[in-house]
Amino acid sequence: MEDLLNKESVQRVINVLRDFDSTLKVQALSSSARTAIDAAASLNCEVGAIVKSLLFRTEDTFLLCLVSGDKRCSLNKLKKITQIKDISMAAPEDVKTQTGYTIGGVSPIGHLKKINIFVDSSLERFDDIFAAAGHPNCVFKIDFKNLLKITQGEIKDIVE
User: Fold this and answer.
1) Domain ranges of the chain
2) Predicted confidence (pLDDT) per residue in 58-91, tens digit
3) Any idea what the Cα angle at residue 48 is, between residues 45 and 52, rounded to 5°?
4) Could you tell me the pTM of the whole model?
5) Which CATH superfamily is domain 2-156 in?
6) What is the Rg, in whole angstroms, of the alpha carbon atoms belonging to the chain?
7) Phi/psi class of residue 134: alpha, beta or left (left: φ > 0; alpha: ψ in -120 to 50)?
8) 11-31, pLDDT tens digit by residue?
9) CA distances in angstroms from 100 to 6, 18, 41, 82, 126, listed in the order given
């Protein structure tokens, strides 16, 4: 488990958390948190308390949407909010080059490139939420208010 915390991608998350609030810690799980359902089972929490980090490609840039684990991101709502007609899920190689993470471990923080972030307001239902920390077996716990601060994300109604 210690080896996971030494991975470069996880270290990026650890560094951002430490600079933001030294009480926030990355937790290595013995089982995978690759999907929201897996993560909820590993953490013994509701699926909705898991933050899904979904990268979308727009006409000329990327957009990261942080969505509650029990919700689906709405392409139609994203198109309306952004006034961009051409939005689709980013390809796995784009996810890696833009965020520095592989799918299943995409963290809402510590990206390689600056990405605009939308945060699903339904995450606010939970006192604590859990987000990936750079690896499918690593997560960190945070509250909604601090997730907004640390990501500089905008609250949007982006779910179906």
Assistant:
1) 2-156
2) 998 999 999 999 999 999 999 999 999 999 999 9
3) 110
4) 0.95
5) YbaK/aminoacyl-tRNA synthetase-associated domain (3.90.960.10)
6) 14
7) left
8) 999 999 999 999 999 999 988
9) 15, 19, 26, 24, 28
